[in-house]
Design goal:
The protein is mostly beta strands. The chain has one domain (3-421): Neuraminidase. Helix content is 0%, strand content 50%. It has a five-stranded mixed beta sheet with strand order 7-12-13-14-15, with no helix packed on it. Strand 19 (246-252) and strand 20 form a beta hairpin. It is globular.
Length: 434
Amino acid sequence: MKYSKLVSLAVILVALCLPAAASAAPAPIQLTDFTSRAADGAGQKHATAINSKNGRQLTFGWRSDADGAYLAANVYKPSGAPIGGERVLLDGTSTTQNQQFGAAYNPVTGGWIVTWLDTDAKTYVSQLLKASGAAQGPARTLVSSSDMNCCGSSDIAWDSKKRQFLVAWSYYSNSGETTADGSPTGRFVKANGTLVPGGSFRLLSNVSDFSEWNSYHQLALEYSPRHDSFGLITKAKNPSVSTYMRPYFQRLNSKGRPVGSARNLTPLPAPTSGIGNADLAYSAKSDQYAAIWGETDGADAPIYVQRLKGSSGALVGAPVRQTLPAGESGNRYRAKIVAGPSGFYAVSTFDNLGLNSAQSIGAFKIGANGATVGTPVWLWTNEFAPASRPQVAFDRTSCRFIVTYVADADLSGEAAYQLFESQVKTTGCRKPKR
């Protein structure tokens, strides 16, 4: 297999808890090819999860080779070195890459759980994985509908009180994104991978208020152990609020059922553009959620952060526009967020920053007031080669943040995505008990 045909996810491990002054991440280190097949294409959508006890990492997503598309997982040491080979979970499928995959660490088994929309079987499924990334038991059908189309979005939250997972998903229906069937839905899954009896349930109490959903990487779920409740953020259109997609927050009780109505996070009058990603994180230290989203249009498309109380989901102040470099052409909206030892940390794509002519990846710290601290750390700034679809997670075992994204490192198109790693430690972490 020629190197130019190597397909990989780009994985950058970077700590974002840096001084307020501008700082650059260490040069990326190229890692070993993760694939065991002669892959010739990689989807930009993927999921990342971290083992909270030993810092091992899972990546899961869509790939393709001469024999067709397949879904696969890989596990890495904290150093980024691969453990075993690629684990193929679904082979020879027409399942599209145009979805957000879910992945989470399983603290009971020491393995993982992943989710995806199977467009062949018209099902949303969950699959338990061993610590190696290999499948453990059968895939479980969360929901089945002939109305499912190409695309979906899912996320997974670990309920530490009941020691089970809440899986949330939405999908694009055959009739478009206008039916309640594709609206955010949830179901509990036991730590052993079996489904909790009772079936699935709607996650929004005011579904009828919305006329359209967007299921492309537009759903995020977080659990608050202090309040034994969940927070959900999704992207939807409510005609009475705006003609554009906006971010909505919904608080869920311990049973995953909605408490009150979904809350529009953007102030009125509503902006005159749609949004890109909408993501959510929960900090036990501050007992707050932080929602992040980016506007899609305009010469200086902004990114906003809105804080919410963990106890009630009530707004804490107004949305805070992040102080980021000017000059972007509007593609600043792939924003993701995670809680760390001293606040929240975010990553996003950036276009035309004066740094280069391609799409860059920047990471930045968010202070207690929701505002940007310092300037971004640039993780990817190749002059011509774009990077996309960042994900961010926190590894408390080594006190660092892990950012994953795909990057066209040698300008050969999707067939040349490569795997890289940089590690910069931060401070303030308590090591987990063994």
